[in-house]
């Protein structure tokens, strides 16, 4: 990896296999040295998009630019990208040192240069004691570091990662998340990182590109996607638990609650979105019946029914002791209400 990253741009990139359309017209711009997360549910086209940037897959249409250069027709080795796969793709019969340097040898990088790059990666990752081992003698986290080592020695300005943490347990995942982010910052490279885990996206990204059915649903910094989701899909994809979406009557109320008015009267059906952590118990507001409350340590998640068929999740700080079946009211600040067109899913400004 280079000390400086390169811009990555996609212009109208599409890909289909027969009747299956994986990507339809993806355009995006990842700034040099920034961390971009491609986020979305299974099958939305994240991996296909990454493989097209890597050159492992050809686009059916569109252009890929890296560092201002059209690389659409170039083979992977000439694009200036390093890639880390979910499976790590380590060779079981090679040592850690050989695994890390494998790509360099294949590209005929001279031995002194190979060793210099290896030393640097080993120093960055703290894996000097593992060099003579084979992958079968490593823990999951150690294998992950070896895979990162491979990407570091490539000295490419752009690094592509496809769900690199999905084989690790929760604690190690959080640790490696910080390590990968620190590595990207230290090297100043451009990162394109695929995950379906929105907490990874929130915690790591400068820019989140949310994909849905092969299209860009929203492209924004994580804080903006959280505070101003462009669609009800984006609203429900970001946040734990996800944003509540209540269908409103034409009068702007949750049907069957007798008030309050959440949105302006509208001819078209509206969804009112309120994050679980924006709700607070009050003596007025939305009336709800507690179905179930779960104390999680730092907070309590309360599942409630609202009106005829609405469901509301509230995430309240600390321990809230409340009986199932209790009747409560929830209040929230005016900035915490998001309105969406129920038919199109688009945000109502
Ligand atoms: P996941 O998170 O499950 O890996 P994803 O968002 O990475 O999903 P892709 O793997 O990019 O999604 O797949 C997008 C769509 O393209 C899916 O419908 C998939 O079945 C299809 N697809 C991917 N590769 C091929 C292929 N080689 N041949 C046919 N269809 C494919």
UniProtKB/TrEMBL annotation:
GO terms for molecular function: ABC-type ferric iron transporter activity; ATP binding; ATP hydrolysis activity. Keywords: ATP-binding, Cell membrane, Membrane, Nucleotide-binding, Translocase, Transport. The keyword tRNA processing does not apply. Signal peptide: none annotated. Residues 8-238 form the ABC transporter domain. InterPro entries: AAA+_ATPase, ABC_transporter-like_ATP-bd, ABC_transporter-like_CS, ABC_transpr_FbpC, ABC_transpr_MalK/UgpC-like, Mo/tungstate-bd_C_term_dom, NA-bd_OB-fold, P-loop_NTPase. It holds the Pfam family TOBE_2. The keyword Transferase does not apply. This is ABC transporter ATP-binding protein. GO terms for cellular component: ATP-binding cassette (ABC) transporter complex, substrate-binding subunit-containing. The lineage of its organism: Bacteria, Pseudomonadati, Pseudomonadota, Alphaproteobacteria, Acetobacterales. Belongs to the ABC transporter superfamily. CDD domains: ABC_Carb_Solutes_like.
